[in-house]
Amino acid sequence: DNTHSEITKHELNKELDDLLSNLKPKDKEIFLKLYVQEKEIDIVSEEINLKKDVIYNRISRGKAKLRGLFQK
Q1: How far apart are CA 63 and CA 69, in angstroms?
Q2: Three-state SS for 13?
Q3: What is the distance between the alpha carbons of residues 2 and 23, in angstroms, rounded to a whole number?
């Protein structure tokens, strides 16, 4: 059971990485910190030295880009 769980986890990580590779590197970093590592926006803002407004804009554009990829 543990082997199957590890294989599944590895496959999901690969798929997530492939999906996020369509974003700019900074946007990918933001997505990983917020949605995978589940960090608070304030912490991410401090870590990457961007204002929260900028992060929200980048997330919005990134989500739109990812949605566009799925619609094709």
Answers
A1: 10
A2: helix
A3: 32
